[in-house]
Design goal:
Elements lengths: L3 H11 L12 E4 L8 E5 L4 H10 L3 E4 L16 H11 L3 E4 L2 H4 L5 H8 L3 E8 L9 E13 H11 L8 E3 L5 E11 L4 H7 L3 E5 L3 H10 L3 E5 L1 H23 L4 E4 L18
Parallel strand pairs: 2-3, 2-11, 3-4, 8-9, 9-10
Antiparallel strand pairs: 1-4, 5-6, 6-8, 7-10
Length: 278
């Protein structure tokens, strides 16, 4: 059974913390390096529901994509929701480790998992990491479909293959336009419009698209836009990351039991509409 310090070293080799953005907060949030670990839980969000799930599973380590304290804090008091998470974890000997933007740009990374969930063939990064001589790391991915399909059909593919959320899938652009190439980026992606346009793809699938960038984008080009829930675009990474840790466990003879949380921790819970245009 490996110690936590051995697992963290392995996770840092997969997603080196020095590759995270300067504003990010990755790495180990809490945990005793000498604790023995035989069960690990992967999730997107470090919320109390996930801490409770780890406790029920008997896991000694949670790995999340989103940081618990992204902007820092002056307190971990238990009367705050983040403080309650920390108190629960420490009380029950559960460590928390975060891989965020260092997992976004990894090879394979968050957008590779998103492309895989949609059965897309990755050809290259959308925004390549200039430090990668192989040209495989970077933000987002450029992908190809095996067969062209309409934007409407591609959106239906995303709705069927990504986890269901209250938001569902929104599209902008001609629903009958043919899609052959797609840019994908897990999480918030409207800062990437310039790179997407430069790539010359037919569609862009991401999350958290805002009104003004979308309005400008559809006026500038026939680019089709597919907007999914933030959580849904990043959840496939949990399965990919769990498989990577499973492979390391087999290689090292650790006999780890690795789980992926199926809890929907997307903060939006309901959707109401009087109808949408056809």
């Amino acid at each position: 059974m490996p110690r936590l310090s051995e697992l963290i070293a392995a996770l840092d080799a997969l997603w080196p913390p020095e590759r995270a953005e300067g504003w990010d907060a990755v790495g180990t949030v809490c945990g005793d390096p000498d604790t023995e670990v035989d069960r690990v839980l992967f999730a997107v969000d470090p919320v109390h529901e996930i801490a409770d799930e780890a406790l029920e599973l008997g896991a000694q380590l949670i790995v999340t994509h989103h940081p618990l304290y992204l902007r820092g804090t002056t307190t971990v008091a238990a009367d705050t929701f983040k403080g309650r998470v920390v108190h629960t974890l420490i009380k029950h000997g559960i460590a928390l480790h975060v891989a965020h933007t260092n997992a976004d740009t990894a090879d394979p990374g968050v957008s590779d998992a998103l492309a895989g969930a949609l059965d897309l063939r990755v050809t290259r990064p959308l925004v390549p990491d200039p430090t990668d001589p192989r040209g495989r790391r970077g933000l987002g991915r450029i992908c190809e479909l095996d067969h062209p399909e309409t934007l409407a059909a591609f959106a239906a593919r995303a709705a069927a293959r990504l986890p269901a959320t209250a938001q569902g899938i929104r599209t902008a652009g001609d629903p009958e336009a043919l899609v052959r190439t797609v840019a994908v980026s897990g999480g918030s992606g409207d800062s990437l419009f310039d790179a997407v346009r430069a790539a010359g793809v037919d569609a862009f699938l991401t999350a958290d698209l805002r009104h003004h960038p979308v309005s400008e984008a559809v006026q500038q080009s026939p680019l089709g836009l597919v907007d999914a829930a933030h959580w849904a675009t990043e959840w496939p990474w949990c399965e990919q990351a769990a498989a990577q840790l499973d492979a390391l466990s087999d290689r090292h003879g650790w006999d780890l039991r690795v789980h992926v949380s199926k809890q929907v921790t997307d903060p939006w819970t309901t959707h109401h509409s009087s109808g949408a245009p056809n």
